What does this fold into?
Amino acid sequence: MGRSVTALAAAALLLVPSAAAARTVVRDPNDSPGLLDVRRVSRFGARPPVWKISTARRWSAARVQDRGYLLVFFDTFGDDRSDYYALVRSNGREMKARLMRDPRRARDRRIAYLTAWRRDKRSVSVRVPLRRMTTPRRWFVWRVETLLTGRRCKRVCFDVAPPSGRREPLPGARSSAAR
It folds into this structure.
């Protein structure tokens, strides 16, 4: 029994650095009116990673139906243009998500349905399988954008976090490849 406990503890210690390395937190100031002003974006996990978008104010799925959208954009080719995006929207009862391909000269195409959920009234999380994207490099750049129409917004309120995007290595890629 002593050996199995020791082996289990050693295995747990091996998992801790990889779990810690797979977490990114981006904070965003109060810079957009409306319900979907981003406060923090957390990316965690590796296979497949999850993006948790936290907002300044409380909101419900019913309140943002047909008015609010949360997107995670992905540049996988390194050309400062988003190649894919996760679109999170409300059906009035719950949040739904899709992974979309954004080709240069064609209609956007659905790649996959994604899992989205809410653990509290100020956030939504979405799991994005990076393996479903074409990624010729060993890194990608992501950014979050929220869009909201409503009384406090003249036309549409936007918020972007981080403004210039966040460059990260693909899960399983060596850290030197992220340069």
Summary: The first helix runs from residue 2 to 21. Confidence is low (pLDDT under 50) at residues 1-21, 174-179. The chain is about 15% helix and 40% strand. The helical segments are 2-21, 61-64.
